[in-house]
Amino acid sequence: MSVPLLHPQATDDPRLVRWLTGTRQLSDVPPQLGALIDQGVLERAEVGPGEVRTWLGVNRSWQVDGPRVRSALFDALSAQGADVSQQELRDEIEEILARDVSPIAAAHGGAIKVHSVRDGVLTVELTGACLGCPLSGRTLGDLVTRSVQDRFPQIREVKATKPRRTWLSLSRKSSGQ
C-alpha cells in the first residue's frame, strides 16, 4: 500500500485548514478526528471529495495542535487505503480538463488532451491553435497545473508532449516508372 499524500492548505478563516487528500477518499469523519473533537482540539471536521476540512477548537493553535491533526488524518487515510487506480486518476483528470480547460482552449481554436499520467507527471497533448502557441507554456503552468493540482496535489509536474513531425518527400516520382 502506498503512503497517503496529505497537503494542508490555509484558508481565509485562521481556524480552518483544508487538508487535500489526493486520491484517498474518506466517506465520513474518521474516529481519529472524532477523538480530537471530543478532546476539544477540533471544533468540527467535514469530509469532501479529495479533502477534509478541520476547524480548531477554542484557544487552540495550529502551531501546537496541527501535528496532532495531521497525524490523525494520516492514520485514518492509511487505514482506509482507498487508492484509486491509475485509470480512475486519468479519468478524473480528463474530467477536470474537459470542465476547466477545454472551453478556454476551444475558444482560441485549440485543444488539450491527457496523453499520460505516470509517477506524478501529467503529460498533455496540445492540438489545433494550442500547438506552437507562444502562450501554451503559460496555459500549462497557470491553467492546467492549477486546475489539476488543486484536486490532485500528487501531480507534481505538468508537461506537453513533443510535437510529432511529418516529413514530406520533395522528390518527384514520374508516373511511368
Question: What does the secondary structure layout of this molecule look like, with pairings?
Answer:
Elements: E1 7-10, E2 16-20, H1 31-38, E3 42-48, E4 51-56, H2 62-80, H3 86-107, E5 110-118, E6 121-128, H4 136-151, E7 157-160
Parallel strand pairs: 6-7
Antiparallel strand pairs: 1-2, 2-4, 3-4, 5-6
Helix pairs in contact: 1-2, 3-4
Protein model, in words:
By secondary structure, this protein is of the alpha+beta class. The protein is built from four helices and seven strands; from the N terminus they run E-E-H-E-E-H-H-E-E-H-E. A hairpin with a 5-residue loop joins strand 1 (7-10) and strand 2 (16-20). The protein is elongated, with a radius of gyration of 22 Å.
What's a concise summary of this model?
The chain has helices at residues 31-38, 62-80, 86-107, 136-151, and strands spanning 7-10, 16-20, 42-48, 51-56, 110-118, 121-128, 157-160. It has 177 residues and is α+β, with helices and mostly antiparallel strands. Strands 1-2-4-3 form a four-stranded antiparallel β-sheet. A three-stranded mixed β-sheet has the order 5-6-7, with helices on one face.
Helix share bin: 25-40%
What is the CA–CA distance across the termini?
Answer: 64 Å
Number of beta strands: 7
Low-pLDDT residue spans: none
Order of helices and strands: EEHEEHHEEHE
Structural class: alpha+beta
Mean pLDDT: 84
Strand order of the largest sheet: 1-2-4-3
Described by the principal axes of the CA atoms, the overall outline is elongated
The amount of beta strand, in percent, is: 15-25%
